[in-house]
């Protein structure tokens, strides 16, 4: 049976900790199709078997430094799934113009894990087709001092806790369809000139989509929260830029 035939929309969104509503069935089915085509179905614990090569940072700290000298050479193309904190503790720092690219990124993937990714400095980038911060473990993402992170689909706290911070002028998180707070609690803080941009390809933005809470805070001069034409935001209002 084809994958899209085997999983009903309500079952899929239960895995993602997003409440299913028959009223929104058509839009959810469309998101299911889009997620399957981008590979983001692999973010659900029930479907965690990697289909491509898996880079794992666990029990160690890795650095990608644009000017050289990091433990990984920049640019680092992880190509498949990049996991920071799989069953233990892992950290990744991208700095001084370093660049990392992968298909799916996990920060804190399995129960008991703790992952931290820091992207800092002008020209430093982390590019994901889909990104999960706090999948079944604890995840922390810090974007600072002009660093940039992009994700076609962004999940914060599917089943555990997560914290995402975008701080400092030029620091940007660009994301498509986003779920902030699933069955775990998630915070997203934009401060001191940082920017979160959901405007380019987003249809859904959920703040608190399961039994957990999703909290977004925008504070400080020049900080931005851009939503464009997002059609749906549930459980919590999108914060105004302050």
What does this structure look like?
The protein is mainly beta and 242 residues long. The chain is built from three helices and 18 strands. The strands form two sheets. Strands 1, 3, 4, 6, 8, 10, 12, 14, 15, 17 and 18 form an eleven-stranded parallel β-sheet that branches. It has a seven-stranded parallel β-sheet with strand order 2-5-7-9-11-13-16, with no helix packed on it. Helix 2 (9-15) crosses helix 3 (25-38). The relative contact order is 0.12. The model is unreliable at 1-51 and 231-238 (pLDDT under 50).
> Could you give the order of the helices and strands?
HHHEEEEEEEEEEEEEEEEEE
Please identify the structural class as seen in this structure: mainly beta
Please indicate the count of domains.
Answer: 1
Q: Find the count of extended strands (DSSP E, 2+ residues).
A: 18
Helix content: 10-25%
Main beta-sheet strand count, sense and barrel state: 11 strands, parallel
Number of DSSP helical runs: 3
> What is the percentage of strand-forming residues?
35-45%
Unreliable runs: 1-51, 231-238
Q: Which whole number gives the mean pLDDT?
A: 78
Name the shape in a single word.
Answer: globular
Rg computed from alpha carbons, rounded to a whole number of angstroms: 17 Å
The N- and C-terminal alpha carbons lie at a distance of: 50 Å
